[in-house]
Amino acid sequence: QVQLVESGGGLVQPGGSLRLSCAASGTIFSTNTMGWYRQAPGKQCELVAGITSGGSRNYADFVKGRFTISRDNAKNTVDLQMNSLKPEDTAVYYCNLRSGVRAYWGQGTQVTVTS
To answer: For residue 45, how far is the Cα from the chain centroid?
Structure first.
């Protein structure tokens, strides 16, 4: 079993920055993909960014140039640096780990962007 614990959400003004962190523990295979999803009220959950254990990254178009995903394979952590935040980035952000056919989720952390 894998546990994911997120941290770093909060309240920020438009144009500000936040850094989300996620730590994974448990039985983790070395080949995996970690990422961040988000869900805003009344909307579907959507992929924000992902990174493989080999370091390949992908981003949703709406965060390209603003968000950066990184990971530390030795510590089983993944971070999301979010810059130039917009009100439409307001959502609950979830950490995700996929390995083979299994997927694991964190409990979510709230990000609110408002003036």
So the answer is: 12
- Which residue type occupies 17? S
Whole-number Å distance between alpha carbons of 63 and 65: 6
Contact at 8 Å (CB) between 62 and 7?
no
Question: What is the DSSP pairing of strand 57-59 with strand 109-113?
Answer: unpaired
Closest CA to 86 of 15, 36, 38, 20: 15
pLDDT tens-digit series, residues 73-99? 999 999 999 999 999 999 999 999 999
**Residue 18: both structure tokens together:** 């936040």
Q: CB burial class (10 A; 0-12, 13-18, 19+) of residue 55? A: exposed
Q: Pairing relation of β-strands 102-105 and 91-99?
A: antiparallel
